[in-house]
Amino acid sequence: AGYAVQVRTDRDAPPADGETALVMAPHEFYYLGQGIRLADHPGFVDSIPIGTEQWQTEWFARALPFMLRAKRMLDINLQSADAFVRLGKACRYLALGFSPDAEPYSRLKGDWRTKPILRWKHVDLDSLSPDIRPLNERALDVLCVGALSARRSEIFAALAPVLAPLNCFLHLTDSSGPLRSEEQVDSELFTLLARNSRVLLNVHHSEMSYFEWQRIVLYGVWQRAAVVSERCFDVPFLRHGEHYFSVGTAELGSTITTLLGAVAQGDGSAQRMVDAARDTLESSCLLRDCLTKI
Fold first, then answer.
1. Long-range pairs, 131-135, Cβ under 8 A, ≥24
2. What's the pTM?
């Protein structure tokens, strides 16, 4: 977008005169490491916090004081940005759009074959490809990665008859404590799995119908997986039925079955949908353009 940018952490020098700090995830930055003492540093008085969390979470509550005291702010959720505006804050919506050089979403690196969780879950490594392939050439039927919650447990129990016969990679971790190395799915591995999945399933952590942008767009649309999600808030660019499926909880199973059946029968409608979604992301939601508008 034409800006001179440096990536810094809490261990680096604070912003100097003429520099503006964009603080990603203030709920972590100001509570960990050296960030604790930087909250009132003069270099951060005019910083721009970037909200990333859902309103119903404790992490949003941690970020809120820093969001409210800021003169300007950004949020990756359209509805959150709108709510801050209604509160009288100068907040803009930041869509994390497409960038051809973004790692790992555009380019994979590293030896993914060494990831412990692939052995732990007995994944056939030879069936996986680092390339984006058509849906009918992908090894996995359904992919879902996220944190475990009581709500998700109930929904997946109900989906068991649909998912059990399929080749699925389902990984819901208990976030109440530290994760073991064999439990970790990092961004690169998530991208790889998405590129090898026909369906990316999105189930909300709570009753909030949040549009989980990272899961739906970065891992779903970007990797040309067919996204099947519980109903969620609308966002610009992407539309239900044209770019992804946003359905009621009770309809998740039948939607997955219909979609996979169409792929198996050589019906090209699902492939056309994922291609249209990716094309829209590249043409209408470039990260460069999103930053320029802000």
1. 131/195, 132/195, 132/223, 132/224, 133/195, 133/196, 134/271, 135/198, 135/224, 135/225, 135/226, 135/263, 135/270, 135/271, 135/274
2. 0.89
- Residue for token digits 């970037």? 50
Calpha distance 105→209 (Å, rounded): 25
User: Shortest CA distance to 213 belongs to which of 281, 117, 113?
Assistant: 281
Radius of gyration of the chain (CA): 20
Phi, psi dihedral angles at 21 (to 5 degrees) = -95, 125
Biggest CA–CA distance in the chain, Å, is 62
| Tens-digit pLDDT profile for residues 203-236 | 999 998 989 999 999 999 999 999 999 999 999 8
- How many whole angstroms separate alpha carbon 191 and alpha carbon 47? 31
pLDDT, averaged across the chain: 91
Element counts in the chain: helices (H) and strands (E): 11, 9
- Residues 52, 55, 58, 61: is their CA dihedral positive or negative? positive
